[in-house]
Prior knowledge:
By secondary structure, the protein is α/β, with parallel strands linked by helices. 28% of the residues lie in helices and 25% in strands. The chain is built from 13 helices and 23 strands. Helix 5 packs across helix 7.
Amino acid sequence: MDHFLYRDGQLGSENGPVSLSAQDVGTPVYIYSKATLLTHYQRIADAFAPLNPLLCYSIKSCGNVNLVRLLVNAGSGMDVTSGGELYRALKAGCDPQKIFFAGVGKTDKEITEALTASRGGEFQHSAFSIQNSSGIGWFNIESEEEFWNLDKIAGKLGKTPNAALRVNPDIENKSQTHAKTFTGKKETKFGVDIDRAAAFYRAAAKAQHARLNALHLHIGSPIKITAPYVDAITKGLALIDELAADGILINTLDIGGGFAAFYEGTEAPSAADYAAAIVPLLQSRAAAGLKIILEPGRSISANAGILLSTVQYTKQGGAKKFIIADAAMNDLIRPTLYESYHFIWPAAAATPPNRTSTLRTDNDEKVDVVGPICESGDYLAKDRYLPPTHRGDLLAIFSAGAYGMAMASNYNARPRAAEVLVDGDSYTLIRKRETYEDLLRGE
Ligand SMILES: Cc1ncc(COP(=O)(O)O)c(C=O)c1O
């Protein structure tokens, strides 16, 4: 699952105790394990190898350029959703042709940047460099207006971009994915309904510059069972066949992201389980030339990071005991935003028997782990059983690599946490802790 393991009563990250980076860098701090990140990437790459797919890591899940560079070097493309994410991907050395740009509200500026992106060259501005820039691999199209806007801007720049229509396959939320992160139904702001997709493709076939030759499906995240993928892909393939009968060729199918990560230990299908359900649906199509793209985010990054925090105070509130940590909802918003579960355990402790929400151990105490922010929604865990915990203890919040730092904010004027990357027995500061000066920059 990850390389955050207890040895001799101390939590380690790969070969060193996490307390070392906490001593040097302070808390709260995100600590990432290089080996965990790359192992999770490689498991997906290996499991789906029969499709020879392009993996476009979903940079929104965890976008530190130093981590992204590791994945680029391992062969990954990038799924980006803003000009800023595109910039990160290019800065990390990603080949623009391996970049897939999703998002319902791309601005003209972002579209221009993506059309003129070139390897290592970021965004091009002179007429010569615009002409010679490759631009990104695919634009995800989420509305008619967006498609025709892309066509217009591409025409002005002399470009012929590939585009994928994001289609909502209108499937049931069988996997109990949180309502805020399930996108497979018709009634979503993303993409277009499957009922009107064919008409959309037919109209787009008349475009002079943009080529709507790909189909994109992303049904939500995390999807903890494989059945919704099977439903969505089956509907997507039927659409591709219907279009082929009309002479409209779809040469690329992007099946999105959403593979689950391990928050409790064993609740997610493995990469091999997802592949066992999906590869048979697509193998003959891939062999016949259909390019397959996947956009995994959390299944690569979630288990690769922990958030380390120091207990500031403990106190009793009625029947309840509160552990007040120095990490808060501004550092990790998932518990309060999505009611997400993150296993929490002291960094100096015996190995926890497992990481489930029902874990009980001798002498444990029922506590809420909260942060110092002025919101009652500022919590990291509620009604959780922890070993006796005291002021000054280090607490590890596990499986925090995805949508942790990426969603961090400065709420309550809190400088954002530092980030550290562990590789074997050495570690590097890959993002400085913000300062008070950083908070006021630009004001
Ligand atoms: C279009 C798209 N692709 C991929 C992802 C990545 O999802 P996950 O991190 O669950 O794999 C998301 C997440 O929101 C998304 O919106």
